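Bench log. Compound arrived from synthesis this morning; before running ITC I wanted a structural hypothesis for how zinc ion sits in the protein. Inputs:
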Amino acid sequence: MLMKELREKVIETALRAQSDRLIPLTMGNFSARDRQSGAVCITPSGMEYSRLKPEDIVILGVDGNIIDGIRKPSIETPLHCAVYRRRSDVYGISHTHSVYASAWACCHEAIPIVVAELAALVEKPIECAPYQPMGSLELAETAALRLKNSHALLLANHGVLAVGPDLDTAYANSVVVEEGAKIAYFAKQIGNVKVIPEEECRNLRRIALEKYGQK
Ligand SMILES: [Zn+2]
């Protein structure tokens, strides 16, 4: 089977997102780009994640043309492809409808950076792309443009887009964004939120890159 491991990684990620409650039912979609061929593995449209088999994952080019697969690919395939075309550093995309981040997106408000983990991921508040209907080419182009070089973007009245150098990192970014969105929400209820300035975000990012994890 073509790209079996990457297909399995996509399924594993979708199941993780479901058990971590980042997506209800079959909402959200996940993809990974193969480093050698450049082809993309993406979740199929509207299929129960717990029943997915590797052959249900669709393989396509970044132009959206299907290379291999028996299913209809995710409705947000144009969005994934548009991001891959613009960002040569992105090899994994996680699109979720996680509750707190989506709530900020429903206010068309950027998520303020109030916690160090989120600061270490993004250097400034997570922007919200203007509203476009789900699955549309307009959404794909608007979001890919607004994402710029960031790791995450809110989609107005919709959800969150997180990207990374592989699907595991893109997914981890979805989790960090949701946690940051949740804490920012509660901090706002308490009152006078103190955001982390951009310069300190850059400092925290440097510290995370240099010191975090096992060498
Ligand atoms: Zn969506």
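What the model suggests: The chain has a mean pLDDT of 94. Residues 167-190 form the longest helix (24 residues).
ITC booked for Thursday regardless.
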